[in-house]
Write a structure and sequence with these properties.
The chain is mainly α. The chain has helices at 18-49, 52-77, 82-105, 111-139, 145-173, 177-194, 212-225, 227-256, 261-288, 291-311, 315-326, 329-343, 349-363, 366-400, 402-405. α1 (18-49) runs parallel beside α5, α2 packs antiparallel against α13 (349-363) and α3 (82-105) runs antiparallel to α6 (177-194). The two termini are 15 Å apart.
Length: 424
């Protein structure tokens, strides 16, 4: 097995790491473009169909591509040149979004065409995500992974903050403009990838003679074999369900109480700002403290905030507790994701990412469904209490895991690199 620590692009600082900056720039633009599209798609779908029901159906269809493509994406990204995959995804993204822009601007776009195009677009995004994540690991040394993951958390927060205002502005100018913006961001991602001159794969890739099914099975086997990753699948599925449920419950409750739409949107903005602040402070925390204990401590305020939300009944309380819940999530994610990436062999990176992300993707639709059912039956207080309890159980399982607690500082992560396949 190739020792991944010898192949990562080495520089004194991430800001002088050109391949890393190119990948980050392209992906940040792509996230922003996707966010603009996510904001605009329900509005555009309603404008085309004139039906809230069909607008919801189209939005739901667009999510299927992620579920279908996530696992194949990980297998392919571990078997095919990752730089080439990113370039192909960028070209296809430009084609899809430009096609939607032209069709809607020309007045010939219908609901089914929109749904099919969005299905393909979400599949493209599903291929891009694990490929880029695996590529980042190849150009960043283990010691800098915590900082790199924190920066990735920050770019997501920035994209979420900017996407809705930009989407609203563009939609107000022309209904088709959000599609054009998405095409531009995919073009940016393609251009930046072209200038990445270092390989994004291990020198010894996954055995091409191995069938796709066997390769995927090996990915599941790896994830289930490594204790900290195995724990992460179940625990973070619970945490994502709880976080998603709290957000949905708060938003729906504010809608039902006729809160001004701007104030409802402000909750999301507050969450994004808190995440951004957390991402800024994350690198120094990850470098200074052991990753496992740091992650446990950083998740504790989220549990407190969730139970606090179940007790308060006013908008100000929700806003303040949103900060409590989200501020320290980026340091926790940076420590955990950085460690998991550091201990995963290069030729397993994409499959590990796609298997882990699938566990989060599968629970995503459950949060709004469960939130709606609970709100209509037991009210907002008990609904939030239920999700807070799920969050507490996930936190306790996480904190009790010895593999998690044993994670050290980034300068020790290389020593934990998993030998794969394991010795007989």
């Amino acid at each position: 097995m190739t020792d991944s620590t010898t192949t990562a692009h080495s520089t004194s600082t991430l800001w002088r790491n050109t391949p890393y900056l190119l990948l980050m720039t392209g992906k940040t633009g792509q996230l922003l473009g996707n966010g603009v599209a996510v904001f605009a798609v329900p509005l555009i779908a309603y404008g085309i169909t004139g039906s809230l029901f069909w607008a919801g159906v189209i939005a739901a269809i667009s999510e299927i591509g992620v579920l279908v493509a996530t696992l194949p994406a990980g297998v392919i990204a571990d078997r095919v040149d990752r730089r080439r995959i990113l370039l192909v995804c960028s070209v296809l993204g430009v084609v899809i979004w430009l096609g939607l822009w032209w069709a809607d601007a020309a007045g010939v776009l219908n609901g089914w065409e929109l749904a099919i195009a969005l299905l393909v677009a979400s599949g493209i995004a599903a291929f891009s995500a694990p490929t880029e994540a695996a590529g980042i690991r190849y150009v960043v040394s283990s010691e800098q992974l915590g900082s790199a993951m924190a920066a990735m958390q920050g770019r997501g927060a920035v994209a979420s903050l900017l996407a809705s205002p930009i989407g609203g502005l563009l939609y107000g100018l022309s209904r088709a403009l959000p599609f054009l913006a998405s095409a531009v961001t995919y073009a940016l991602a393609g251009v930046t990838t072209l200038f990445v001159r270092v390989p994004l794969n291990d020198r010894r890739r996954a055995d091409d003679s191995q069938s796709a099914i066997a390769s995927l099975t090996e990915g599941f086997r790896f994830v289930l074999t490594v204790p900290v990753i195995r724990t992460g699948i179940g625990v973070f599925a619970m945490l994502n369900l709880a976080f998603g449920g709290v957000i949905v419950a708060i938003n729906l409750h504010l809608v039902a109480t006729r809160t001004a739409p701007l104030l409802i949107a402000l909750i999301d903005v507050i969450s994004g700002v808190a995440m951004l602040v957390g991402a800024v402070i994350a690198p120094s925390l990850v470098k200074r403290f052991r990753g496992g204990p740091l992650a446990v401590i950083c998740l504790a305020p989220s549990v407190v905030g969730a139970f606090g939300m179940a007790l308060v009944t006013n908008y100000t309380g929700y806003a303040v507790l949103t900060v409590v819940m989200t501020l320290f999530i980026p340091p926790a994610n940076a420590a955990l994701l950085g460690y998991v990436s550091a201990i995963t062999p290069q030729n397993m990176q994409a499959r590990m990412n796609s298997v882990v992300s699938l566990s989060w993707t599968l629970v995503a639709p459950i949060a709004p469904l469960l939130g709606g059912i609970l709100l209509s039956t037991v009210g907002v207080g008990w609904t939030l209490a239920v999700f807070a309890t799920v969050l507490l159980l996930g936190f306790l399982a996480f904190a009790a895991n010895r593999a998690v607690r044993s994670i050290g500082r980034p300068d020790t992560w290389d020593a934990d690199l998993v030998a794969w396949p394991p010795s007989a």
